[in-house]
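> call design_seq(struct)
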């Protein structure tokens, strides 16, 4: 495996001339250690190849969309068949109806489905539906939660006006008292609560949802005739073959989906119950590519795999194997390591590492030996990760822990 990044460096230099800052958004590698690649040539299964020919076992899965593995034959063949018949057309393909029917069959609270392109499209539409439902304005959102990149939710302040967020009230995730105060502040003007299935903010330990907190979200919306919105864009179908709070016996009124629902093909969805059916047509949302049929065919094939395969149980087994191995290794080298979040979506942070220096040293060793981990974002396991992939990864991580233990940072 070539240690140089000649092609990647050249592409970065070219990009600086024609792309603002050379790269933007969550896939920018500018804040990563120097050895992390920015550009990739191809992907297959659970592996990536960068433009310099380096191969990696990938634990980002495209930041979540790859559930079943890159270039899954059934998914990609379904998309290709539909592409030959028609993709972006003057009207949607018949596959749109089939896909909506399958979502309604698979997801308990869903009585209808709307399709769009990105998670932000789905969460933004949910906000609009919630406000139109009863003509209310206030929406409760957890502090520092990520719900997309529109002005109402982007984590960075550029281009955002105070007025863009005038009717959002923030609470602390899992803090019922904080949620109650936010609800009281909203008064009779509460449109709804938008919440993630668990706390998966970047830079910090992940936190499972407290069932009592989730129950209180549902109860407040019922008491105030407001809409409970579950942002399942990141976690959907990685925690369950249902919406992520179904296991708690809690169903939202609206749920936003993306990432996994077409195994990397560009589509997202908003699912809703009968309570919101009459309201949805009053909200005008659309997009030139929202009705593209090829991604819908890929999504339909993905849902069939979700229903018929043991993908979820396999991902959990692989996640358990990775987590247990990392915990054992860290303890053996006397390195403080925090492993949080569901094993399917692991977050890994070192103790006493506010500037991520330990993560960078550790991560650079992994990158240099063919394993791609993220320094501060939660990661993802796919159904394409095998026991041999996990075993090989753990061989590399063991050596990385040894390197870190011998560095001045371990002191």
């Amino acid at each position: 495996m070539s240690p140089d990044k000649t092609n990647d460096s050249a592409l970065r230099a070219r990009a600086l001339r024609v792309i603002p800052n050379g790269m933007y958004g969550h896939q920018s590698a500018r804040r990563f250690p120097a050895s992390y690649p920015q550009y990739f040539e191809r992907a297959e299964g659970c592996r990536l190849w960068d433009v310099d020919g380096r191969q990696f076992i990938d634990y980002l899965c495209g930041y979540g969309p790859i559930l079943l593995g890159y270039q899954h034959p059934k998914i990609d063949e379904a998309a290709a068949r539909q592409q030959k018949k028609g993709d972006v057309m003057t009207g949607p393909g018949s596959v749109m109806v089939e896909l909506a029917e399958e979502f309604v069959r698979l997801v308990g609270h869903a009585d209808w489905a709307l399709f769009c392109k990105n998670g932000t499209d789905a969460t933004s539409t949910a906000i609009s539906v919630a406000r139109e439902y009863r003509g209310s304005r206030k929406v409760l959102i957890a502090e520092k939660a990520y719900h997309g990149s529109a002005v109402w939710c982007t984590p960075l302040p550029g281009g955002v006006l105070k007025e863009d967020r005038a009717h959002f009230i923030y609470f602390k995730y899992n803090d019922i008292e904080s949620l109650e105060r936010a609800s009281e502040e909203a008064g009779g003007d509460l449109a709804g609560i938008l919440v993630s299935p668990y706390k998966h903010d970047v830079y910090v330990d992940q936190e499972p949802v407290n069932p009592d907190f989730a129950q209180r979200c549902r109860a407040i919306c019922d008491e105030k005739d407001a809409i409970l919105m579950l942002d399942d864009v990141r976690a959907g179908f990685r925690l369950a073959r249902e919406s992520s709070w179904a296991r708690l016996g809690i169903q939202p009124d609206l749920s936003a989906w993306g990432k996994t629902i077409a195994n990397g093909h560009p589509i997202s969805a908003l699912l809703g119950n009968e309570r919101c059916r009459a309201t949805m047509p009053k909200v005008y949302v659309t997009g030139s590519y929202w009705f593209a049929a090829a991604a819908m065919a890929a999504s339909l094939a993905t849902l069939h795999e979700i229903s018929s395969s043991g993908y979820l149980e396999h991902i959990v087994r692989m996640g358990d194997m990775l987590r247990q191995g990392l915990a054992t290794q860290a303890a053996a080298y006397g390195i403080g390591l925090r492993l949080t979040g569901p094993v399917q979506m692991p977050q890994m942070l070192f103790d006493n590492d506010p500037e991520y220096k330990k993560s960078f040293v550790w991560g650079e060793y992994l990158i240099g030996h063919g394993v791609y981990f993220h320094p501060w974002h939660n990661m993802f396991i796919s159904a394409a990760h095998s026991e041999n992939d996990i075993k090989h990864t753990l061989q590399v991580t063991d050596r990385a822990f040894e390197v870190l233990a011998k560095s001045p940072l371990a002191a």
